[in-house]
Design brief:
With about 500 residues, the protein is mainly alpha-helical. The protein has 23 helices and no strands.
Length: about 500
Amino acid sequence: MERVCKLKKEVSQMIYKEELLMDKLELVDTLQQLGVAYHFKDEINSVLTNIHESMDQNSLSTMFDDLYKVSLLFRLLRMHGFSVTEDIFRIYIDHEGNCREKLYSDIKGILSLYQASFLAKEGEKMLEIARHFTTKHLTIFLESSKYDNSRLKEHVAYALEIPLNWRIERLHSRWFIEQYKIDEQIRPALLELAVLDFNLIQNLYKKELKQVSRWWTDLGLYEKLPFVRDRLVENYVGSVFIAFEPEHSRFRKAMSQSNCLITTLDDVYDVYGSLDELEVFTDAIQQWDVTATGGLPENFQMCILALFNTVEDHGNEVLKEKGLYVIPYLRRAWKDLCKAFLVEARWYHNGYAPTLEEYLQNAHVSIAGIVSLSNAYCINDYVTAKDLEQFSYGYPNIVRYSSMNFRLYNDLATSSEEIKRGDIDKSIQCTMHDKSVTESVARQEIKELILKNWTLLNGELVNNYALERYFKNVALNIPRMAQRVYQHGDGYGMPDSDTKNLVTSILLQPIN
């Protein structure tokens, strides 16, 4: 720890000593991709604020002399919530949507523009054009034999697989650290700090997982409910993907517990309960009254007691430390989730096939993003009474957009198998029925809907919210997590070697 403190001071001084604007931006970008930027929030905010306040946005592109620099500036400003328009790319893309010829050989610039294009807001046509153009030309570059820069090709292949704005921060940092080791312009202090920090946080994760495991064992639900999926480790790793920084330890543990309960309730609604039982069960949760479960089997009462006690524990911890009563907001999310579960159970038991619109209206709630984001809002060190007052008016739009992409990524990977097991139609099947199209066409439409939701999420980056950076980042990380977990199939419902590799890289294998 002493060495880490010394390195942090050295890097902090490095940030302030940089004189050239471009050097400052590249340093900020490197810190973020190495996963240590959270140590330097004030310094980074100061750098970006000064840049944003001093620039003339109408002539922003004249501040730099190439596409790489303009794209990097745009990406860093927008991802930190600063207002910057797509017009800075006018000198590279004309009014007809054609890209200037001088771009075609600038692979580094095209790659930078590609990454920037995935921060487009809804309606930004120029960035949409840029995304198509850069994807096409990076693909050509990757397939061409005339280019022999293997390291650049590796970075291009990595970007085309998943753009930076869609990647899980902790997994990307691990990859980037290995890349930085062989960088020609490596700064040894940054590398040493990143490696030490990654390994120290990994040790913290192991301690947290032990604590959550003890809670799950003591709860005894898995032993008493054999139909329930036991996904404790995956649930904890998911919480790391959503908020990796050490300061969010309490949220990670609460979120891991919540994920275990979400899986339990999901299996109760999908596998175990009859419709009559689920009606009573849901009503008891709406009343938040365990005595309202009269007549239900003991298994149902155990589930409700586990849910109620866990939520109250989370809320009471905040009440004790901050004097804030967050329990009503935590309860609201669980009540809304169970109502959505019941809607799907009614559809299934009654043989009803919802339209896509009906399905999505309910499914963005039943995926449980509202529980994750309510936990993020209420169970953290930053929440204030004013924040809770704003939250009392309902969920902000960012909750819907984040949850919707969580649902759609899940559907792309799991819908066919879930239907085989006996579940309702998902977004793909609803699209097929509504539009009389094939499954492949429906899948493509869902992918386009995911892309649209990302633009809506990006638009929320510049909106004012309570707990701005932290809450927005959690909202972004939820679909990032879903994209990765379901990238090669159902990495949660049917864990495979890919899931094991994720767990190993996050929890078990330190960086040398």
